[in-house]
């Protein structure tokens, strides 16, 4: 099924923000929303949807990754951080509200690449949500030799950790050392002596660059989602162009639009 603009209904929404470990305020405003939509039936891990703000002064839709797809009941879950005017509006939506979305967009992670391999899934910050559906799909496919998850957080607000633990081993890194390994996801690999044939990851650009270097040094295949760089999400604004090794068939330049050609790329194919 191709992308479609559809009306959908908010099933539920709750704020995940609050206090981290030891009762400290986290300063994060992260929300968890379920949407009722037929798009869930064909959703793939690593894809995203665009939500159209009701405030018409906000022209462009906001791309948000799919956290979980309840394909049987026709529901999509998104977990997002309030970062600007659009997402601030979304945070006020309540059960029963009607909104417009465009989806499902992007290529998703290649599940077939995990067959017979030791896989490490890595999520950093707001790049963690799409890792939940990826983990579920890899477990259901049952073709990977082993699957582990490394989740990197700013602090002790370990959103989605318990959800992911239902499907596999989860290792945690926090920048402030309040939980798990102090540092980032790469520090966990060293601390736990983890090894991978395939890495699938989403997170901030410094993390993805480190994973790209790791994959080159250790002969692992790394598939990275560059969704952090997206703006409109539909290929219109050209705000998410990245350099690639492969030449575009139409423009004959070595560029790709992350929202339409990705957001998932083989790390060795992109210049980040």
Task: For the structure shown, list the relevant keywords.
272 residues, globular, 7-stranded mixed sheet, 33% strand, 6 helices, alpha/beta, Elongation Factor Tu (Ef-tu), domain 3, 17 strands
Explain what you see.
This protein starts with a strand and ends with a strand. The chain has six helices and 17 strands. It has a domain of 102 residues: Translation factors (Elongation Factor Tu (Ef-tu), domain 3), CATH 2.40.30.10. It is of the alpha/beta class and 272 residues long. The strands form three sheets. A seven-stranded antiparallel beta sheet has the order 4-3-7-1-2-6-5.
Q: How do the helices and strands line up, and which of them pair or pack?
A:
Layout: E1 4-15, E2 30-36, E3 48-52, E4 62-65, E5 68-70, E6 75-81, H1 85-90, E7 98-105, E8 118-124, H2 129-141, E9 146-153, H3 161-165, E10 169-174, E11 181-182, H4 185-192, E12 198-202, H5 205-218, E13 221-225, E14 241-244, E15 255-257, H6 258-261, E16 264-266, E17 270-271
Parallel strand pairs: 8-9, 8-12, 9-10, 10-11, 12-13
Antiparallel strand pairs: 1-2, 1-7, 2-6, 3-4, 3-7, 5-6, 13-16, 14-15, 14-17
